[in-house]
Amino acid sequence: MYTPKYFAETRAEALHGLMRDYPFATVVAGAADGAVANHFPLELVGDALHGHVARGNELAQLDGAEVLVIFQGPQGYVSPNWYPTKAETHREVPTWNYAVVHVRGRLKVVEDAAWLRALLQRLTDRHEATEPQPWRVNDAPDDHVEKMLHAIVGIEIAIEHVEGKFKLSQNHPERNRLGVIAGLRRRDGDGDAELASLMALQEKPKQEESPT
């Protein structure tokens, strides 16, 4: 991934935070007919990613394969009109801000029913947490759950390398970055609030480091 140094994100807490907040990932692997890409949620567990796919998925046949996992965080168009410097020099152009994490690792196919059931319980507990009456795996009949477990396989990816790119206007002066945050909040389109919040979070350490 092309990553100029001012966009490189290396803090483990920031990388892991994006992976947890945006768990729906793209998994790219090499197969006999070329590269394949699949999309499904992954859970960060220690130094590994856990998930599951249908038994008929190509990944179920790629035990031991090297894979690239892409986590896509908030993203959005940035208007040059949001930069205060644009009014002064007019030497600004549109761009796109975004945050992504790439994980490289080795895939392991898991057939263990107990492992799969525990994974499904964790995933549903997490994503049902905001529901008034959260659904639980045990709410479904046992025979139906067993049938579903036979139809899937677990995916465990041992993490070997993590790379983050948070393109959040770091190549601009502070007043332009604050202008982008204000512009995103004013536009308030799909994902704009999340992108503005991430940019504001990046600004906070700089403000805390400034002399009083």
Automatic annotation (TrEMBL):
Name of protein? FMN-binding negative transcriptional regulator
Q: Which organism is it from?
A: Dyella agri
Task: Enumerate the InterPro entries for this protein.
Answer: Split_barrel_FMN-bd, TR_PAI2-type
| SUPFAM superfamilies on file | FMN-binding split barrel
Q: Which residues cross the membrane?
A: none
Which Pfam family is an annotated match for this chain, by its short name? FMN_bind_2
